[in-house]
């Protein structure tokens, strides 16, 4: 990575940087804490800031972030950056496989009944069958454990998306 990536982020007005970061993880406190750590001397410093920002997400922050994510197996609507990224991240789900689509829908329904929020997993590089298997394995979790897993998944997704922000 060249020196231009930190320079671009360092040169953005704070509000613009926060807006770009919110596409990675829709938690204002996280985005603001990263922005407050500028100037970034290098790309590693940007990732370090992201890894340490908002170390403990609140349940409210997790639910806010979840609202920005479509159900696994469903195509994200809209033309905003987050929707585009979500479609790319779920590219391993074969939308033409009617049986898989049905099973994902049923799994999503069961998960939402159990936990009261959308099932979230980092879908990048995973097939629909893998995502369904993970969903089923998590249905037995207690709500507290599942919320911790979701927070970790949100951070994993945010870090992958942050690479796109850094690349500009």
Helix share of residues? 55-70%
Question: What is the CATH topology?
Answer: UraD-like
Strand content: under 5%
| Total domain units | 1
Task: Outline the structure in words.
This protein is mainly alpha-helical and 168 residues long. The protein has a single domain, classed as Oxo-4-hydroxy-4-carboxy-5-ureidoimidazoline decarboxylase (UraD-like, Orthogonal Bundle). Helices cover 63% and strands 0% of the residues. It contains 9 helices and no strands. The chain has helices spanning 4-11, 14-22, 28-35, 43-52, 59-66, 81-89, 98-115, 128-138, 143-167. Helix 3 runs antiparallel to helix 4 (43-52), helix 4 runs antiparallel to helix 9 (143-167) and helix 7 packs parallel to helix 8. The relative contact order is 0.15. The mean pLDDT is 91. It catalyses: 5-hydroxy-2-oxo-4-ureido-2,5-dihydro-1H-imidazole-5-carboxylate + H(+) = (S)-allantoin + CO2. InterPro entries: OHCU_decarboxylase, OHCU_decarboxylase-2, OHCU_decarboxylase_sf. This is 2-oxo-4-hydroxy-4-carboxy-5-ureidoimidazoline decarboxylase. Keywords: Decarboxylase, Lyase, Purine metabolism.
Short descriptors:
168 residues; 9 helices; single chain; OHCU_decarboxylase-2; OHCU_decarboxylase; globular; UraD-like; mainly alpha
What is the structure about, briefly put?
By secondary structure, the chain is mainly alpha-helical.
